[in-house]
Amino acid sequence: MPHTHDVTVVGAGPAGVAAAVEAAEAGLDVALIDAAAQPGGQYWRHFDEDRARPEDRRGHHGWPVFTGLRDRLYVLRDAGRVHYLPGHQVWLATRDDAGTFTLRVTPTVRDPEPAGPGHGGTGHDGQDPVVARALILCPGGYDRQLPFPGWDLPGAMAAGGVQALLKGHRALAGRRAVVGGTGPFLLPVASGLAHAGAQVAAVVEANATLGWLRDPVGAVSAPGKGVEAAQYAATLARHRIPYRTRTVIRAILGDGRVEAVRTVKVDREGRPAGPEREIAADLVALGWGFTPSLELPLMLGAATRQDVDGSLVVEVDDLQRSSVDGVYVAGEATGVGGAALSVSEGRLSALALAAALGRPRMDPGTNADADRNTEAAGNTDADGTTDGNTSADKSAASGAAADPAGIRRVQARIRRGRRFAAAMHRTYPVPAAWPRSLPDATVVCRCEEVTYGDLRHAHAELGATDARTLKMLARPGMGWCQGRICGYATAGIAAWLDGRRPTADDLLPLSGRTPAVPVRLGELAALAETVTADPAGP
Amino acid sequence: MSTALQGAGPGPTLSRSADLVIVGAGVVGAAAAYFAALAGRRVVVVDRGAIAGGTSSAGEGNLLVSDKEAGPELDLALYSQAVWREDLAEHAGLWEFEAKGGLVVAATEHSVAGLRELSVHQRASGVEVHDVGHSALHEYEPHLSKDLAGAAFYPQDAQVQPMLVVAHLLRLARGLGATVRTGTEVTGFLRSGDRVTGVRSTAGDIPAGAVLNAAGTWAGEVAALAHVAVPVRPRRGFVLVTEPMPPRTVRHKVYAAEYVGDVASSDAALQTSPVVEGTDSGTILIGASRERVGFDRTVSVPAISTLAAKAVALFPMLREVRLMRTYHGFRPYCPDHLPVIGADPRAPGLWHACGHEGAGIGLSAGTGKLIAQALTGGQPDLDLTPFAPDRFTDRTQDAEEAVS
Ligand SMILES: Cc1cc2nc3c(=O)[nH]c(=O)nc-3n(C[C@H](O)[C@H](O)[C@H](O)COP(=O)(O)OP(=O)(O)OC[C@H]3O[C@@H](n4cnc5c(N)ncnc54)[C@H](O)[C@@H]3O)c2cc1C
Ligand SMILES: Cc1cc2nc3c(=O)[nH]c(=O)nc-3n(C[C@H](O)[C@H](O)[C@H](O)COP(=O)(O)OP(=O)(O)OC[C@H]3O[C@@H](n4cnc5c(N)ncnc54)[C@H](O)[C@@H]3O)c2cc1C
């Protein structure tokens, strides 16, 4: 019988690290599993810790918050209070008859980077299951992608991928870049590229303006965000990067790789409303908001809903509890809202779980400081003006007590964060009419080479009026990525062809995947010996 | 959107009456719609979800004769084979019909003997079987385990892509004047005395000369709306899908001899004898487990891990191949493992075509043609008595409850 932890946290991004640290400090026996080699997730992705340089923190807001959380994590790990398992992916999550949860893990296929300090030392062979009485799932999300001519050319990348190369590898994917799509997350990518020495030929934003700067709800809810945006604006100005609003990339041009983009002005619905122009580029970074990773919550049967940005997210209550008893969810998976909100949600889930289990805190700490500090996660300056903010570091190392007032304070912060996120999503919607002028030859599903024309045929001739039927009849999402990349687009196209807006029912069939990541059949077969007496065996 | 294919919407009550309303746009409903429309009937197909949204898109597309013991189901399977290959021959390419043949392998001399004995009876019923000895096994399947004793090859075994079958049969039926209403749930029946004279639905009443219950695993619930009992229940199955492999890595449908016993079993516990096969897209399908656990949708580690273990035992090279996805469905299951096909004497005007369990894709073509023949007053090509809707006595149901 494997050891049973009080809680397993999946994901060591802002939400997961905060949850693990908070839970362990509340006295819970914690396991923390993360696919990456180092903590930080999407947002605080960084270069190998062993070979860190001061400038690595560039582009990382709330870096002190992160290092504070990370230091606490390592202290807890070294004290044996967090069983931290980096470099491992959870591929199967099941609820056991006894009410516990068993997670099966497999080593992440690693990039050629040498192992960092988070590596090894765990003695885990990747086969032992991780068992716990409760789960806090913080699997985060990744860039939403929309298909259009040329989006599959080498040199066209997801904005998050470009960012990951910069942050994790200090690698620049091109010399002359165009950043396109919608939303404030295009800005850090553009400024990151500029800082790294690329020429950013344009940021192409489908929506009107930096409206959220002026949005009264947004400004009140998260004052720091305005500062952050202003700093990005300053970076764009300093590097003379044109910021073209109400403009979309209509096509990426090139013979075998990206050579230029063709842009066009659009109206509110995304319909062309001006002349086209061509911009030379060898790198295009594309982002249309985020898609939460829902594999694990869906595998366990958690209820979902459609968020303001149109994405499917896990439904949670005001204590981060999903519809499945014992399963808490925090971070992007409950709705996209940035790193600071993710940290708060992670903390709340741990505090709520500790309270539910009746655990007292082991490290009494001051909570007011910690509350203020974590709020800064998304707010501090890209260029590191919070350097030396040691008070923030210190307070981040203490956390908030699991007292009702502490929980209420975190809840209030989450409500503010959500309001801000909703305002942001309303400012930066994916244009409703985005499939309008797609040529039939546009590849929608790259794995199975399914074109927009194939989807139109399946709709018009075969009666596929929803995303699941479209997938069944034309195969988008049936290949290697299982719809991770084309799922959102397929749902949007299904709805568009049927003359309506995409619904949760369109998104759901392309969001669930078992296993959560591909796994060798040998690894699955090995479980047979442990779980069944093989009733029908020869 | 084709004019004859309509979504739910708050539309007006359907005024136009039909000769036949078919409840269920799965493979069985689609086949019945096609053959009834071909016979000149005005058909309306109604489904509460999308087309092929039920079990027809949650299984595999094997058209097997090899796994059936001599008897009425084998007769129906052989009849269906003829319908697939003759009546539907011109459309075969639309649904990727492929006569790849089935290879049933046995691990021990004892199971080889069992295979040979089964084949004697199957041959007598018209099944083509080639005995394959140990030494010839690898000519059929180069990657098979070396530890197998022998096999039987069934050239008639074939496959289709079931969702495309449903979509195209419905498209062809629409071309013949049929109407398909998705997003429309049947909530009751119109009656005139005992007679069923149409359905009540979430989109209004649809009067009809006859109603066909083709609601698959949910056919028992639909029958209950007409106050008749049809004992169809769910039998869960998982299927594993691997990453794409080079073409012809696995050439036929390959499964272990023990599978036949599993199919015919009434045991509620888990049974897993995988059928391993390659697909056009390169992925290898490994399916499927059988267990009676109601409509439990959570992943079963015993089911999927045992499937994997047994598939690896057949093809050791699969050990290093990655599992990309698993899915599951609920086979429509009757206590005696036979489908329900024909008119219901307890409710005149009501017909059934349901309960095809793990063979509904293969049996759909024959079922559809037979139902159309019976509905139009003709003598069906095959005697439908073994499939009679009122054949179930309380005793067969009690015996069934006892094992479950
Ligand atoms: C290009 C870009 C720019 C951004 N800019 C900003 C910004 O300026 N300001 C801001 O506030 N936010 C920004 N964000 C958003 C920010 O990254 C997210 O809000 C934040 O990372 C969410 O935290 P999280 O903990 O929910 O998830 P993540 O940070 O995504 O972490 C999830 C972790 O879970 C792991 N994981 C997932 N599934 C499994 C599994 N099955 N097994 C094991 N591990 C698993 C992942 O590997 C990952 O490490 C940006 C994001 C991107 C991509
Ligand atoms: C894992 C697995 C593997 C399988 N492999 C094979 C195989 O290889 N070969 C083979 O031949 N068979 C196979 N099968 C079996 C086959 O899939 C089924 O027998 C077949 O799909 C049944 O078709 P159907 O049309 O009767 O039911 P369904 O496809 O389920 O259609 C019934 C329809 O009725 C609708 N419905 C229900 N209630 C109502 C209502 N009140 N109002 C309106 N509509 C309603 C449903 O929405 C549904 O669409 C497999 C099954 C499983 C689960």
UniProtKB/TrEMBL annotation, chain B:
Transmembrane as UniProt keyword: yes
Pfam families cross-referenced by the UniProt entry: DAO
Q: Where is the FAD dependent oxidoreductase domain?
A: 19-373
Keywords on record: Membrane, Oxidoreductase, Transmembrane, Transmembrane helix
The domain of life for this entry's organism is: Bacteria
What residue stretch is flagged as signal peptide? none
- Bilayer-crossing residues are 20-39
Kindly provide the name given to this protein in its UniProt entry. Answer: FAD-binding oxidoreductase
